[in-house]
Amino acid sequence: MKIAIISGASAGLGKKLLEKAIPAFSDIEEYWLISRSLDKLKEVASVYPGKSFKLLPLDLCSHDSFKTLSDELEAHKHEVRLLINNAGCGFLNNVGDGPLDEQLSMVDLNIRALTAVTHIVLPYIPAGGHIINISSIASFCPNPRMTVYSSTKAYVSSFSRGLWDELKSRKISVTAVCSGPMDTEFIYKGNIKGKSKTFDTLPYCDPDKVAAGAVKAALKGKAVYTPRAFYKLYRILAKLIPHAIMINASRT
Ligand SMILES: NC(=O)c1ccc[n+]([C@@H]2O[C@H](COP(=O)([O-])OP(=O)(O)OC[C@H]3O[C@@H](n4cnc5c(N)ncnc54)[C@H](OP(=O)(O)O)[C@@H]3O)[C@@H](O)[C@H]2O)c1
């Protein structure tokens, strides 16, 4: 059976990525959706009564979840045509302030889980398959007050670029999606909304458009997708201008 796996599919961008993937990948027979909340996943699946789903209520910060996913894949031996590593979190705080758990959860989910899920799923991805990794504009330059978050997303973008090259000969595409702020639960859970001048003044990205663009970019085999001209320009500037200067504009 041909399947797709989407992490963080119960809310925000993940929900939109599912909505856009369904018509774009007509050969996919089953969608495996991951998040911690089974109820939310059931709600998402109920929107598509004609589609087949496997709902995996997993906490990707827990090592046990990797074993569960690995066992499921081993038991079914499906072809994974599309893997979307979308689950992520971000908290506004200086390093040394606030709960340590928040800082570590960014490393665990954004880096460790993304790496583990990719490693576990990769043997099941055939030629012609696609991987979409949700990174961020935060990956372009360090963002003080979100130093850990921006560092995790720098990893996601760098990991995706390296993997893109490793998988070229297997004809598997890898796309890093670098969105600007989106009005999802993320900015409320992370204590960001209303607490950061930069976040509150930056132009927002529409998750619907980001998801559509991400799917399109993956189908074209693009290594990086950055929505909005404003953030495309920011990406170029962050490459040309030393970080010591850029950092003044990227402070959250
Ligand atoms: N919103 C923004 O401003 C923004 C900007 C750029 C990039 N991004 C990136 O976009 C991606 C999606 O974020 P979003 O804005 O859609 O955030 P969101 O609305 O908070 O959704 C996050 C998703 O991840 C799941 N999740 C969180 N912790 C998890 C865990 N430990 N294990 C498994 N699943 C978990 C959540 O479901 P449960 O809570 O049920 O587990 C939810 O489905 C993230 O990688 C984020 O870094 C966001």
Structure report:
- With 252 residues, the protein is an alpha/beta fold.
- The chain has one domain (2-250): 3-Layer(aba) Sandwich (Rossmann fold), CATH 3.40.50.
- Helix content is 48%, strand content 14%.
- The protein contains ten helices and seven strands.
- A seven-stranded parallel β-sheet has the order 3-2-1-4-5-6-7, sandwiched between helices.
- Strand 2, helix 2 and strand 3 (53-57) form a beta-alpha-beta unit.
- Helix 1 packs across helix 8 (207-220).
- The longest helix has 22 residues, at 100-121.
- It starts with a strand and ends with a helix.
- The mean pLDDT is 97.
- Bound molecules: NADP nicotinamide-adenine-dinucleotide phosphate.
- NADP nicotinamide-adenine-dinucleotide phosphate (NAP) is lined by residues 7-14, 34-37, 40, 58-61, 86-90, 109, 134, 136, 179, 181-182, 184-187, 189.
Strand content: 5-15%
Helix content: 40-55%
How would the global form be characterised? globular
How many separate domains? 1
Helix and strand run: EHEHEHEHEHEHHHEHH
What is the CATH topology assignment? Rossmann fold
What's the gist of this structure?
This protein has 252 residues and is of the alpha/beta class. The chain has helices at residues 12-24, 38-45, 63-76, 100-121, 147-166, 185-189, 197-201, 207-220, 229-240, 243-250; strands at residues 2-7, 30-35, 53-57, 79-85, 130-134, 173-177, 224-225. The protein is built from ten helices and seven strands.
